[in-house]
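Chapter summary example.
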Amino acid sequence: MNSFRPILFFAFILHACAPGNPPSTASSSAISNISPADKAKIGRKIWQNESGGSINGLTAWNAGEEFPSLGIGHFIWYPAGFRGPFRESWPDFVLFAKRNGENPPAISSRADAPWSSRGEFQAQFRSSEMSALRSWLAKTVSLQTDFIIARSLASLPSILAAAPASERQRIQENYRKVSGSPQGIYALIDYVNFKGDGTSPSEKYQGQGWGLLQVLGGMKQSASGSAAAIEFSASAKRTLSRRIQNSPTERGESRWLPGWHNRCDTYARGL
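The structure predicted for these 271 residues follows.
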């Protein structure tokens, strides 16, 4: 059986009802047919990006945020009574894991995150439940990478549906160009996990988003392959700088910009 069928099936489930043009066959196959070696490298890079590749970093609650982030992709999980503007991804990953034959720890299948505050999360960090959760996450890095790839594959139809009709062809062409190199495939996979696809109305400051849609739309003319990945990196940095400028002062997001730009710099380098 093709190992990517579960990924493609879940990508279809994520956006089965999304309108708009489908992704080009070349762009989709470039990502879905990524080699096992490159997939492993991408998973390690995402884990490094999010938490320095540490086991402890697999369960995190960042200062200034209202929710924990779990796994190599720091999948968001909202506590009971809180629903923020960002897309919650942890429940989707748990469903993906179960559909791929995994039996996640019981704590992971709750409807809401079981910690009501960052302080409570930190107090329970060494509990047997959280230790078991980190151990399971450390053993399922490949599956988490598959989930992140599925999210990337599912993003393009929604992006094209949300883009102005006059911009769709250029955005799809930029996606194709970026997917023309291993570093570009990594960039497309990582950025959706990092900052979303840019189609959610709630993921905007002052009417401007910061997801993959905005990065692809903000790219300057470039050749396909590595050159496109380098321009994608530059566009991502411009997009995130604009997010900081538009963000509410009380969130203090400027402290994250150096790290965000460092992450985007990895898109301009080979795997």
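To summarize the output: The two ends are 27 Å apart (CA to CA).
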